[in-house]
Predict the 3D structure of the following.
Amino acid sequence: MRRIYESDALRRDDGSFTPSRRRSSTPLQAMRSVNATALSRRLIPDGLRNRSLSVEVSTPRTEFSSGEVIPFRVTMTNSMPFPLTVRTRSPIPWTWSVDGAPEAARIALREPPDEPGEFRFGRGEHKRFEKRWQGLFRVSRSEWERAGPGEYAIGAGLNVEDAAGKGLYDETTVRIVEWE
């Protein structure tokens, strides 16, 4: 980098932008930063952290025809002016379900690692995730069953113990109808 500054490669004849010269006698100073994750874990009580985060599940409409793909959006918001870190049960930070079936599967798909993870939120950050439910429930490794007409609850929340009780879970209801 020093060669570029010592050469005239960055100088322009027309006087437009030219990087400022650096004095070689001034020692370089590293930027100091605060480890926001460690600070969040040590200084912010769990109750305040949970009240500061919100989860919202939304769909473009509430009624869909049978066989139609149902898109939904999960929005997670940190309302505080400082970063927050939430400890999760596994490295999977959040989960979604349909009528209590994780990822619309009525069988166990996978066993997540038994190690905790972390989900970081910047100050005032909004995280948005877009998913689609095909209107099918997985009943075996290779078999899917179509959801019949009726109401279904699509829910999502942070992967923490008792997410609904802590306010870190939300769900919305959609109706599947048969069009004649």
